[in-house]
Amino acid sequence: MMNMGPVSCLVILLFLFGKTVTTESRNLNFGQCELSGVSFQELRNYFGAIKQTVQTQDNRTEVVLLKESVLLEVPLSESCCLLRHLLRFYVERVFRHYEATSNMLRRKTSTLANAFLSIKTNLRVCHDQNKCACGEESHRRHKVVLEEYEKLEKNIAAVKALGEMDVLFAWMENIRN
């Protein structure tokens, strides 16, 4: 019998069960819009790979883009629209303006950007089917985030927004319940 150390066993277990863990996906409900196949574990893993670096790069701790007051008590009917606005904000501004300090960071943020783009595309389908209501409340909340973002230099603002993605994920996970 072959003698396998704890690391070898771990590698084998990860290989055998890794697909189950990484492909765990859930349906998200934002108002009338249901998104299927979204894996929060994957999103969190992508973010986890860059979190420490981007949060260390954030020198403007007095500024908060994703304030709890912006995300708390969003009317369920407008949650789809707000999420669509926030994902577009991340795809079109944050990821575009982030200046990665290494190839690894560039790859990880690119993977995260692609995941956001995929969810945003699905939200667009809901919007086109009139299942994603946009009202005054979602526009106002999105505007608050943009105004704070615009106060900072683009790369500094991008770093700040990336570092706050755990707030966005927590809101997304809670809104679906």
List the helices and strands and how they pair.
Blueprint: H1 6-22, E1 26-30, E2 33-38, H2 40-57, H3 68-71, H4 76-97, H5 103-128, H6 136-150, H7 154-163, H8 165-175
Antiparallel strand pairs: 1-2
Description:
Helix 4 runs parallel beside helix 6 and helix 4 crosses helix 7. The N terminus is likely disordered. The protein is globular, with a radius of gyration of 18 Å. The protein has a two-stranded antiparallel ribbon with strand order 1-2. It has a single domain, classed as Growth Hormone, Chain: A, CATH 1.20.1250.10. It starts with 5 loop residues before the first helix and ends with a helix. The protein is mainly alpha-helical and 177 residues long. Helices cover 69% and strands 6% of the residues. The chain is built from 8 helices and 2 strands; from the N terminus they run H-E-E-H-H-H-H-H-H-H.
> What share of the residues lie within helices?
55-70%
Which word captures the global form?
A: globular
Give the oligomer, counting copies of the same chain as homo and different chains as hetero.
Answer: single chain
Query: Low-confidence parts, pLDDT < 50 over ≥5 residues?
Result: 1-23
The percentage of residues in β strands lies in 5-15%
Q: What is the N-to-C order of secondary-structure elements (H for helix, E for strand)?
A: HEEHHHHHHH
Mean pLDDT: 81
Give the N-terminus to C-terminus distance in angstroms: 49 Å
Total number of strands: 2
CATH fold name: Growth Hormone, Chain: A
Class from helix and strand fractions: mainly alpha
Reading off the top of the CATH hierarchy, the class is best stated as Mainly Alpha
Strand arrangement within the widest β-sheet reads 1-2
| Count of the separate structural domains | 1
The main sheet comes to: 2 strands, antiparallel
